[in-house]
């Protein structure tokens, strides 16, 4: 078995995959990549299934030495990155050799990055997932963020894949100078809040605070009035916008608790979850309320090209299936042009 050696850890570098949502009913956090779209694209670029384990890092990436030849891809936020001192572009597949050193520096745009390796990170699965849940010391490598000297098992890959020279467009990332528009659905306790509070949520500007991690991002801005009705506990979902007693919203993410006692006024639309997760501290955000059919349509428009891309990677060639729209077909074909 080959391995990756961590020379420098970066910030909160962990092993993540699609998470363990089937175990939330057992009291375990879902975990997994907080920008699921970016992690999926990284895997597809190196020919992995979308649930393969990747490395996730925030604001400052790790420095890694490879013990054997393989193929890698970087996605998510923009990072200053080089391979053996030479700049390395994101959103494409690259070949690395034994002894090569990958240095991922500071994020220049966005927050969270992903490194996929052909075959996936081969740490031991726990409850059906390799995802790291740090507060429970669960999964990943010893259940913790990676540290200098750690060795991560991977598969040796020397065969040049058919997708080697292909690349994908960069992910949409928030602009620090412009408020990010985040689309919301009404939450289960939406009607508990008075009309003035509902209006304030979508008419005001909030800021991502420094209290932001994989559990959730705390926001600062106009105080929302908390309803007088009491809530003993309710199930939580990724993107739930809770309103605690201080009236400052919290958006829950991958490592959130499975239940909570704060009312949920709204939920971030799935199509915008990755975009929201890429917001750095200090980023301004504004919310826009949409309905469920609109949210479903927006999500389908994003997922369809990736679904077809996955089939292209699996089969090794582009062959649009029956029923795919002409526009979607052209979008996928352009991704795989020489």
Protein described:
- With 338 residues, the chain is α+β, with helices and mostly antiparallel strands.
- The chain has helices at residues 36-45, 195-203, 273-277, 292-315, 326-335, and strands spanning 2-8, 14-16, 54-58, 63-66, 70-83, 86-87, 93-96, 101-117, 151-154, 180-186, 205-212, 216-220, 234-235, 240-242, 250-252, 259-260, 264-268, 284-289.
- Strands 1, 2, 3, 4, 5, 6, 7, 8 and 9 form a 9-stranded antiparallel β-sheet that branches.
- A hairpin with a 7-residue loop joins strand 14 (240-242) and strand 15.
- Residues 318-338 have low confidence and may be disordered.
| Tally of DSSP helical segments | 5
Main sheet characteristics: 9 strands, antiparallel
Coarse structural class = alpha+beta
Q: pLDDT under 50 segments (min length 5)?
A: 318-338
Radius of gyration: 20 Å
Percent helix:
10-25%
SSE topology string:
EEHEEEEEEEEHEEEEEEEHEHH
Strand content: 25-35%
Give the tally of β-strands: 18
Mean residue pLDDT: 90
Taken from the alpha-carbon principal axes, the silhouette is globular
Spatial gap, N to C terminus? 33 Å
Topology:
Layout: E1 2-8, E2 14-16, H1 36-45, E3 54-58, E4 63-66, E5 70-83, E6 86-87, E7 93-96, E8 101-117, E9 151-154, E10 180-186, H2 195-203, E11 205-212, E12 216-220, E13 234-235, E14 240-242, E15 250-252, E16 259-260, E17 264-268, H3 273-277, E18 284-289, H4 292-315, H5 326-335
Parallel strand pairs: 10-18
Antiparallel strand pairs: 1-4, 1-9, 2-3, 3-8, 4-8, 5-6, 5-7, 5-8, 10-17, 11-12, 11-18, 12-15, 13-16, 14-15, 14-17
Helix pairs in contact: 1-4, 4-5
